[in-house]
Design a protein that fits this description.
Helix 8 (216-224) links the parallel strand 6 (197-201) and strand 7 (230-233). The protein has helices at 22-31, 45-49, 58-71, 91-100, 129-149, 160-167, 181-194, 216-224, 246-256, and strands at 2-6, 36-44, 77-85, 105-109, 154-155, 197-201, 230-233, 260-265, 268-273. It has a single domain, classed as TIM Barrel (Alpha-Beta Barrel). The relative contact order is 0.15. It is an alpha/beta fold and 274 residues long. Bound molecules: zinc ion (ZN) (2 copies). One zinc ion binds at residues 5, 7, 83, 235. One zinc ion (ZN) binds next to loops.
């Protein structure tokens, strides 16, 4: 199996001195029996511009990944990736960044919508119902815009804000706790028509929500609508989380009916058996 979504100490959301090196992530991947790992550090483009996150050291990451590719050749496939957040807020700069390095895989994320830094940093409890419903709608709109922009290989962790809504006890508007099909149908249809992989992100299994992002119901909905193209990632921010939840997610995906998962090299997609 591959872990297509991991972060090193270069990621701006990891405090200095915490986190793991590229090499440590790779050693952890080998220890848990993975065949490949994608290093996909955060590049939340507007958050960096506005000074909320430190600049990403693209050159340092690239250098470390090239060294890891060489060191682990024949033992582990090491992919150079990036998790591009809010590309549609600065589409020209985002496209330029993707031209700057020979990436293997580009993850497309929406961690924030215009007006907030990140759902993780937003005091959702202080919002009125109208405000938090509007934020949710903006999230859906901006994901659709990201797909329309299209210069990504994988759409990551759909339902991301749900983690923060549930943490604040917000479950009542059309049942985001258990379903959400009514919200995500246009997004899932767009993922399929654009040929972009949908991520099964296992980080929620390590958190209070206790499920992948998206959850089993939405993954089943994707399958029912014809989606077969799945990328799996732990979203590890430390070496000890590399590969976590991937076996569990694989079993769930097979039960739904999926047979393959996607891997990427030089932004070309291949499929391997689950
Ligand atoms: Zn993310
Ligand atoms: Zn991530």
């Amino acid at each position: 199996m591959f872990d297509n979504h991991t972060h090193t100490q270069y990621s701006g959301d990891i405090p200095p001195g915490k986190g793991s090196s590229v090499r440590e992530l790779c050693l952890s991947a080998i220890a848990c029996g993975l065949q490949g790992i994608a290093i996909t550090d955060h590049f939340d483009i507007d958050g960096i511009r506005d000074g909320f996150f430190p600049p990403l050291d693209h050159e340092g990451i690239y250098r470390d990944i090239l060294a890891a590719k060489e060191e682990f050749a024949g033992k582990l496939t090491v992919c150079h990736g990036i998790e591009l957040g809010q590309a549609t807020h600065m589409p020209t700069e985002a496209a330029e960044q993707l031209e700057s390095y020979p990436y293997d895989i580009v993850l497309g994320s929406v961690h924030a919508v215009r007006g907030i830094i990140d759902f993780a940093d937003t005091d959702i409890a202080s919002l009125s119902k109208n405000e938090y419903i509007r934020l949710w709608e903006q999230y859906l709109e901006e994901m659709l815009a990201t797909l329309e922009w299209g210069n990504i290989d994988v759409l990551t962790h759909i339902t991301y804000p749900k983690r923060y809504y549930l943490a604040n006890g917000i479950t009542e508007f059309p049942n985001i706790k258990d379903r959400g099909r009514e919200y995500f149908e246009p997004i899932i249809k767009s993922v399929i028509s654009k040929g972009i992989s949908l991520e099964c992100n296992t980080s929620g299994l390590r958190q209070a929500m206790g499920e992948c992002l998206p959850n089993r119901d939405l993954l089943s909905f994707y399958y029912e609508l014809g989606g077969r193209d799945i990328s799996i990632g732990s979203d590890a921010h430390h070496d000890y989380d590399v590969g976590k939840g991937i076996n569990e997610a694989t079993e769930m995906l097979k039960e739904i009916g999926f047979t393959h998962y996607a891997t990427f090299a030089s932004r070309k997609k291949s499929f391997s058996k689950l």
